[in-house]
Amino acid sequence: MDLGLTLGPLRRGPADPTYRATPDGAFWRTCRTPEGPGTLRVAARGGTVEADAWGAGADWLLDRLPVLLGALDEPDAFTPRHRLLAVTRQRRPGLRLLRTGLVLESLIPSILEQKVTTDEAYRAWRLLVRGYGEPAPGAPAELRLAVVPEPRTWALVPSWEWHRAGVDGKRSATVLRAVRVAGRLEEAAGMEPEEARRRLELVPGIGPWTSAETVQRSNGAPDAVSTGDYHLPGVIGHALADQRDADDARMLELLEPYAGQRHRAARLVLLSGRTPPRRAPRMTPRDIAPL
Fold first, then answer.
1. How many whole angstroms separate alpha carbon 115 and alpha carbon 174?
2. C-beta of residue 27 within 8 angstroms of C-beta of residue 5
3. Is the dihedral of CA 101, 141, 118, 113 positive or negative?
4. Which residues pair with residue 53 across a beta bridge?
5. Torsion of CA 71, 77, 83, 86, to 10 degrees
6. Could you tell me whether strands 146-147 and 36-45 are parallel, antiparallel, or unpaired per DSSP bridges?
């Protein structure tokens, strides 16, 4: 098992205050468990995973560590139908699909990533968590880790602070609607992925892309495809059929042979490094704070 590949989807940018990889090979993660805030440190040593945890949520984190690291995942259920995916899986055999068992911590950053550049979304997540979260229990101060705010705290973030973080009214309103029903949304972590997605999409502003990005992490959903993504259809189209202008329909057609494992197939495509060459400069991030 490759810890970096497995835990990587939890990282929201290089300065994510809830996640850090350190030079000694350890991975630090903070979260708000049902028992309270917690910090988890995980490292692999000679084929064995070692973990320490701190805070009120420490026992919860350690009890669920195997599931987080893919104990319920079934990588052998995936059969490559394209040479690119067969080669990539052989080169990156340690990929496991994680399962956090927590919904809101993945849902909120996914909402922030709607229809903006990743840099804009990462900046918003960083500012809001550092501004309204709490210090991570047990974590070294130099890591600058923080625990995500509880639902009530999210609900009390002033409108001007959302604006300063670059979050427009539509996305902040969606977050506020989500935290008002946080308990019902967290129940989705125990559902089958499709049922969980239906539960999430009952909240106005949460669509198929956001629900897929969430259950991929909270439920370890191997078949949840992020339709509506700006780049993903072109990447998959280019990698599997040399069609960089593929749309969602074409992407789903190409992934059809992997029904039940389409998210894993998409992860392997992204890990393959076969992406279409750029045809234009990167999109310039917007800064709405001065407006």
1. 13
2. no
3. positive
4. 40
5. 30
6. unpaired
Closest by Cα among 100, 98, 97, 95 to 1: 95
**In this structure, what token pair is assigned to residue 26?**
């350890």
Tens digits of residue pLDDT in 146-194: 999 999 999 999 999 999 999 999 999 999 999 999 999 999 999 999 9
Q: Are strands 19-21 and 27-33 parallel, antiparallel or unpaired?
A: antiparallel
- DSSP codes joined into one string, the chain: --HHHHHGGG--STT-TTEEE-TTS-EEEEEEETTEEEEEEEEEETTEEEEEEESTTHHHHHHTHHHHTTTT--GGG----SHHHHHHHHH-TT------S-SHHHHHHHHHTTTS-HHHHHHHHHHHHHHHSEEPTT--GGG--EEPPPHHHHHT--HHHHHHTT--HHHHHHHHHHHHTHHHHHGGGGS-HHHHHHHHTTSTT--HHHHHHHHHHHS--TT---TT-SSHHHHHHHHHHS-TT--HHHHHHHHGGGTT-HHHHHHHHHHHT--PPPSSPPPPPP--TT-
Q: Which residue has the tokens 């350890």?
A: 26
Sheet strand arrangement including 27-33: 19-21, 27-33, 36-45, 48-54
**Alpha-carbon torsion 175, 177, 181, 185, what sign?**
negative
* Bridge partner list, 135: 146
Contact (Cβ atoms closer than 8 angstroms) between residue 30 and residue 130: no
* 29 and 7 Cβ atoms separated by less than 8 Å: yes
CB of 198 within 8 A of CB of 206? no
Contact 272, 239 (CB under 8 A): yes
Residue type, 102: L
Question: Counting Cβ atoms within 10 Å, is residue 15 exposed (0-12), middle (13-18) or buried (19+)?
Answer: middle
**pLDDT per residue over 96-147, tens digit each?**
999 999 999 999 999 999 999 999 999 999 999 999 999 999 999 999 999 9
Distance CA 102, CA 37 (A): 12
